[in-house]
Amino acid sequence: MSRDVSIAFVCCLIGAGVLNASPVVVPSTDSGTVIEVAFPVKQTVQEMTALQVLTEESGKRGRVTWSSESGRLNADHFQPYVVVLAQRDQVEQVLPQSLVGTWRDHLLRLHPSNAAEAFTIVTLPWKDKAKTGIVQVISGNDVRGELFGVGWLLRHMSFEGGTVQLPQSPEIFSAPDKPIRGHQIGYRFKNNTYDAWTLGQFEQHIRDLAIFGTNTLQLISPVSDDNPLSPLMPAPPLETFLGISRLLDQYGLRCDLYYPEMRKDYSDPAQFQAELKDFEALVRRMSRVDSVHIPGGDPGHTPPEILFPLAAAEVRIIRKYHPSAAVWISAQGFDAEQYESFYTLLGSGQDWLTGVFFGPQSRDGMEIQRKRVPGRYSMEFYPDIAHVMHAQFPVPGWDPVFALTEGREPICPRPMAFSRIYKDFQDLNGGFITYSEGVNDDVNKILWSQLGWMPGTPIDTILGEYARWFLHREGEQLGQAVALIEGLEQDWDGPLLENRQIAKTFELTRHLEDSSNTAQSQGNWQWESLLYRGYYDMYLQRKFAREQSAQHEAEHALVSGGRSASRVKIAERSLNESKPGVEEQREHDELFKLGEKLYDDIGLQLSVKLYGASNWERGANLDRVDTPLNDRAWMRAAMAKAEAQPTETAKISALEAIANWQMPVSGALYDDLGSPAHESHFVRGEGWQKDPEMYHTAIDGIADRTLEDGWRLSWLSYAEALYEEPLDLEYKDLDPSKNYRVRLTYAGEDYAVPLTLTAGDVVIHSSRLRQSNPETYEFELPKEAIVNGTLHLRWMRGTPGGGGGGRGRQVAEVWLLPQLAATAVKSN
């Protein structure tokens, strides 16, 4: 049999998988260079699929003619460049007899283990009379090992100037560190991409992930915490779901079923039995199920004493059809009492259960769970790599303007953060399946897959392979592409207006954009997504600077003298005349062009109105490009209220209060909680480096509103702490001779939990719910609250032991006001 795919072929010697600077160029003709790929006579579907991946994926990137031959190579069909693809124990069936001894010598030097999914790559010189050639052997310890060996080869090919540099390593043996390296796929309305995909697009995604060492895809059950249908779906949900399962079987990859229990009450026997019936109807039709993950919550709400019997019954069903399926369960969403029940049930012995997985909304951290879960149960990691706020691993100190606009689910390459997180947790788990909601986290998926294979791999190496494979960059451009990805992560460090990295990243973005050829740019969604983020960051910095300047001018007008009407007129003019410059407008327009390309090329839904996203929070941040970035809506309402005052004196006083919001009296101390640049008295706790999940670190957040709603930005942003962790402010060097009042703004999400507030040892208010959103609360500070010039304000959860995500204790603003009067007062 033969197969033709056109490419030019270049061989280069490498050491330890790194391309040599002086490759050996293999001569080629106008029609390309012929490379023979040889394999054993008997091939499984999975082995033939690995062969297709090699020939088809390289063929998309260059010019080569692959000729295929099954059985033993011989001199009568001598080719100067040959790739052998086989399992290790089959290699000698394919090699020329003259090379068998050399092959064995390489194995003796390498001492390859029998680890599952491992592969060996060696290069053997082939001489026949006057002819010389090279035989490169890709041997897998098993079928997956062959596929991952092919992936290694493809990742190390480079495509530059119409040629392909094929790495030729004398001897490499590579085995994965983690046995489970997976990512989640949800073909559902909530997803920001996958609901628009065909099975062909899913197959390409599976290939790309496998090339980087992914061995597991987790499929969310067609019934989950979502609408059953999406208007973007090209095929019915169940049809596509089952099709993906078939594809994974074809590729020999693990298929995991994520199965939340969504009925209302499983203590009802009818609901219990109905769930089992639905479960059986699903799993009996799946081509492959290697494991099932059943979350306790997020989504789900079933207490452990009911969840365990239900899961055990489902295990009995699935093993009728998939006898080797592993079963995992989580404690997500449980409250403190339910956690104790969970641990007790595990301790009593659950022979049907493989292990416990740890994911978002877990009140006990992974280290605690690993200590309390009996050792006979393995633990897996279910990290959220898609979200950057209201999330398991929020971006620390994120500027509220980014949070307001780019939102919870943006394009979010975080190589440095997630490499740190991976290493922090790697000793606590035996593998991972990441939580994802589309392609916004594409770089993060590749990073996790590669770290799961070899945790010591340098980040630049992983990003370099990403840039070579997906962005088609080589040489100097490859290094620039790596710097661009890293720069996008650094764009989010610190206050938006002070971040000089944003301009540097954007300059690099424009340089690579201008120097891109058609192959690099046309239809390349990975490249388009990086462009989109680079443009968005730069656009926000320009727009925020301009709109804040307009607000400052308007505030200055309100305190600059003259009659109230004149002050308002000048302030309104400052707000109204602020218009984008040429560069800001260009960046604005480019975002919409890129949004359209990303939808057309990959189905990424960056807008609810334009592209059918399920919600703006689900990655649709194109809908926030035009949102105001200053307080003009609030200011206009406040100015109108001021002008309605009965006297000119009252009008001017009210206008000046608008401008002096942060400093209502001389010597006031103000914290805009949620804005890292303006919360100097905020006690952060352990900090992100030690505590990436923020269990013991206060968090900056933002409400799901916009400034068009008439809120101030200082109300939108807030600080919070999780579960029973205190939320603290600390003031030092206070004047003990002064009296103080404290003014608070309680604001944030529309839901809230009861809070207690203490000042030192003095209880200011016991457990209470916010009365409105926002709510102003003001009180006279008791003298005894200040000790040796120091004041501690502390908010605690009013009802300890809660479950879920542990959020809801949100404080937006705090003033410490000297020499204010008397009685405690609360006002809305």
UniProtKB/TrEMBL annotation:
Entry keywords, A to Z: Plasmid, Signal
Annotated signal peptide: 1-21
Statement: the UniProt record of this protein carries the keyword Signal: yes
Domain of life from the UniProt record: Bacteria
Keyword presence, Signal: yes
The protein, known as: Alpha glucuronidase N-terminal domain-containing protein
